Each structure stands twice: as structure tokens, then as C-alpha cells.
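Problem: given the chain below (445 residues), write out its structure.
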Amino acid sequence: MLPDHRRIVVIGAGIHGLSTAWRVASLLSARGEGSGADVLVVDKADIVGAGASGIACGVVRNNYFQPAMRQLMAHSIDVWESDAEAFSYHPVGYLQISPEVMRDDVAGIHAEQQAIGYPSTLIEGAGSSTAYLRRIFPDWRAEGSTSVLHEHRGGYANNLASVQGLAAKAAAAGVRITTGVTVTGLPRAGGVVAAVETDRGTVECDQVVIAVGPWVRDLWALLDLPATIALRGPDGTERPAQPMWRYWLVQEGTLKVEPDFLTDAAGGLPPVVHVDSDAPLYDEGDGSLVTDELWGIYYKPDTNFGGVQGGATPKPVDEPAEAVAVDPYGPASRRYIVSEDFARLWTSGLAHCQERFQGLRHRFSTAPSGGLGCFTPDSFPVFDAFHDNAYVIADSNHGYKMIGVGDLVAKELLGAPQALLEPFRFDRFRCGRLHPTSHSPFPWS
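Solution.
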């Protein structure tokens, strides 16, 4: 049975919902204003982390062109590092390897990382970049890279293990986590959300937190918020109305090789590798052209099953947001999973970068992979309250790495506005405060 009332009801047992519940429970207890018993987490799946958090590749990075994202990620990495064991976090660092068209962007990122005290090294020039990478990977052979940004913090985490670690922290703080509960309504009284209606009963609440990843479209509708929105550019010009939500297929997969296959020159765990390139990419098998346009891949050791895991630039779903069937989600879907085209591009990209990957496409896992990401009009998150007491965490598919958002949201729920979240308010769309975009082929960089 669900309780009749809770001070705070959190919808979604993924990275954001659980981190928010854990932190708000800790704050209530520390301040003597309550305890975890004031907080309820509900999720429609039978287990925690059943959505995007549970299938995330797990990369944790600060490589963002947008100053607001960099500062937010620096805070999140503090949280990852606060208990690396509980979060199954590997602080191996991160390499952004880029072509000339992105060189100025990357140099700007490095300069601003130094300004906020975030340690990184910038290598410029094709020859220097190759030499630097070969000291890490002796078999490095990619051509056309003219800059390397090596972030010395960041790395990757095991997706499900980190979510379970958060769930354990929330439960230890007294939070009740109830799975198998579908939210059916968010009735309002006096202009605020009065309760959370579910298929297992109604829970009255003082505040509700919506942290549901790609299902945000549906909870947004339950709040009667707009399905389309007019945008204003930084110069003040109005742009045509756009859908509030867009879906992209996040393309990720696994190469089934030995657990120690991807190591650095010293035989240890290497940094996460992210390569953007405008060099023509050829099939690692038959030599045919894969693409002569800007492309990007990323990869790291796979902490779940051994081998190498990574992804490539996402693909927009060519359907209106309201027509996209989010359920069944991820690998359980027969429709929104990666295709042979991804396997060809990713494995060819791996072989383009390092000789050790040549001829290994047959090791690409044929198990279904990939999942939907729900993006805002400018592809960056919305963190804001609606109807006064309904806090929406719409991560725009940046979510897993941003474990620290829950800490900031918890403080806002208890009355302390957080400057790091200000650039992500909903009113930026109408006020012309859109985030700047880089030359990266990834919409979230």
C-alpha cells in the first residue's frame, strides 16, 4: 500500500530521482527539519534504473562548449568522486580528440576549464596530437586530428551499479522506494499539484519531483504544460514555434573482446576516448566509404560484461514526439534500437583510431542495444518548478553523468536557489538565453 501523504514524492527511480531523494533526505535530517520518511520515490518499472540510467554507457566528462554545462559538470564530478566505490566510478580521465574545424572550440573549453580550476591539458597541432596519443596508445593511427583535450578528472561508471548505489544511500537515509507504480494523474488544487495519482492509489504531497528521463513528455502533459514553444534568439528575434520535445535514438553498443583488451601503454585502464573527425571513414572490412562528413565516436572498457563499449552520433527519430512509443524501452524495443549501420560506423571508427581493432567487426554484440533520448528545443536540460511545487528535471539526455543535479535540486526544494541551475530555467526559451552551440556532430556538446 502507498502512503496517503508524503511531503515530497519523487517520480522516477533513475539517476536524478534517486540522487534527489537521497540528498533531500540527508538535508532534512541534518537540519532537524524531517527525515527520509518524508520522501517517497515511485517508478513504474519493477526495478530501479530500468530506463535510460540503466543502459547508459556511463561516460562522465566535462567536455562542454557551454560554460553553464561545464560548471554544472564540475560539481557533478565532485559527487562522483565523493564515493567512487559506492557509485562504481572509475576516475580514468577523458580524451576529446578533434579536427581543425573544432580546434578553436576545444581551445576555448580548455581555457574556461582552467578558469574554474578544472585540470586538463591541451595539445595542439597534428604532429603533437599524434605523439601525445601514441604515448597513451602505441597503436594510435587516426589521421586528421589537430587537437587533444585531456581532462584529468572524469571517466566512467557502471550504470546499474551506480544507480543501485544511489538507491542504497536513499534507503539508508529512510527514503521509501516503491517500484511497479504507474503515475496516472497530477491533480491540482489552488494552482499547485495536490497529489500524485497512481494505479496503486493516490498520495497527497507538498512537492513533487518529476525525474523520468525519456518519459518526460508524458508527465509534462499531465501538468498541462505546452507541447510547442516559441523561441527567441540571443539577438531578440523570435523564431517559429517548435515542439517542446524531440526524440533521438542514442546509438551505443559493445565489442565482445577480452576484459583487458583496451589498456594503455602501461597496461592499465585508459582514459575514455572521444574522437570527432572530418577525415573520410572507410569500412574496416571491405574498404568502402562509410562517410565523408563529420563523424564522431566514443569508447571505453565495458564494466558490465567485459570488452569495449561506446557509441556514435545519435540519429533523430523522424516522427512527431507525440507519436513516439517510448515503451517498451531500450533493448526491449524492436523499433528504437541500433542498426547494422551503427555497427559498421562504430567498428570502422575504432579501427580508424587504433590498429588493435582492425578486423574485429564480427565481435560486435548482436544483442539489441541503444535507447531513446528526449531532447528540449536547444538540446540542453530544463531544471525548473511549475505550478509552484512541481519540480521538473528534464535532462535532455545529458542525465547519467550529471549525478550532482540531485544535490542542487534538493537544496532548491528546501528553499535555497542554486546559481548553477539558473541557466537551465524554462524561461530561457522566450528570453533569448539559449545555450551556444559548437561545431561538434553531437547535439549535446
